[in-house]
Hints:
elongated; binds fe (ii) ion
Amino acid sequence: MNTHRLSFPQVALDFMNHDHQEFAELREKLLARIATGTTAGIDVMLDELHAHTVRHFADEEQVMRETGFPVYEVHKEEHDGVLADMIQRIALWKQDGDLGALCHWLEIGVGEWLVAHIGSMDTVTARFAAAKLGR
Ligand SMILES: [Fe+2]
């Protein structure tokens, strides 16, 4: 579904680029499913998006700790905020079943956040960590 495709920069660590691509694809898949007007499978896809995000953030945070990233707390705080919001949005969806609200959050909220986060926090983090790791 090219209509929902996000454009974001590549960062200096491959595993992060791989995770960002997977996250973007999960979001696209969800938006494509929502566009069909069916709710079938959406809960499972949202749980998958959440599990992927938990693991992806944990991996980034581990690299930051291992390389002594100086503003670890700032990056970690943003991750924690995004995860808390995601948990709340998914719970709200499961409670209200509001497809429009879910679509808006994924399209705008998640989409804009991902592009901004990769272009700022992740770019700086990956550059720092790659230099420390000699990659
Ligand atoms: Fe990040």
